[in-house]
């Protein structure tokens, strides 16, 4: 669900699906011994505050919460073009934070996993996860529906790079979805 609270506040809510992780997700066996992680649903809440009523630039905050911790994204954004119908391209520069539960679900290694995998046990703290750039595109299919695409590049913090699971200093994600407006 998405809507304007007034001419400079936009609120988004959605239910997302986290696909989990299987040992076989790594082609080189890097996840062997770590076990599979369950999939589940996450609630995403996002707010934007425009600097002016034309919605060319804004500050953004996003919270992702579910059964495996919390993640927050905060930054500034810019919309390309002159459309005012919530379609088109936009970019956000962000700082991403997570709690220790969220950090350890994705990148931590508990004692049992360490014994099974041969990797060092790793317990991560919450805090800064990454800096990133987020690009998204919305296209109006009809009066009620949009198709949505997003690409995200994250450069991991030094805390996260301590994990033996982290193969690169960065992560990229691409997503697609539909929005009822």
TrEMBL record:
Localization in the cell: Cell outer membrane
Statement: the UniProt record of this protein carries the keyword Membrane: yes
Pfam families: MipA
Main location: membrane
One GO CC term on file: cell outer membrane
Assigned keywords, A-Z: Cell outer membrane, Membrane, Signal
PANTHER family named in the record: MLTA-INTERACTING PROTEIN-RELATED
Family membership: Belongs to the MipA/OmpV family.
Protein name as annotated: Uncharacterized protein
Organism: Pseudoalteromonas tunicata D2
């Amino acid at each position: 669900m998405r809507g304007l609270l007034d001419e400079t506040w936009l609120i988004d809510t959605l239910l997302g699906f986290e696909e989990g992780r299987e040992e076989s997700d790594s082609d080189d066996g890097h996840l062997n011994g770590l076990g599979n992680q369950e999939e589940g649903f996450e609630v995403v809440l996002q707010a934007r505050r425009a600097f002016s009523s034309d919605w060319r630039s804004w500050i953004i905050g996003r919270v992702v919460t579910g059964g495996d911790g919390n993640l927050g994204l905060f930054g500034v954004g810019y919309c390309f073009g002159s459309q005012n119908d919530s379609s088109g391209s936009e970019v956000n520069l962000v700082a991403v934070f997570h709690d220790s539960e969220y950090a350890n679900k994705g990148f931590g290694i508990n004692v049992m996993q360490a014994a099974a995998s041969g990797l060092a046990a790793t317990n991560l703290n919450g805090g800064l996860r990454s800096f990133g750039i987020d690009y998204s595109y919305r296209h109006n299919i009809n009066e009620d529906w949009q198709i949505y695409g997003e690409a995200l590049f994250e450069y991991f913090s030094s805390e996260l790079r301590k994990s033996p699971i982290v193969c690169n200093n960065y992560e990229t994600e691409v997503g697609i979805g539909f929005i009822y407006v």
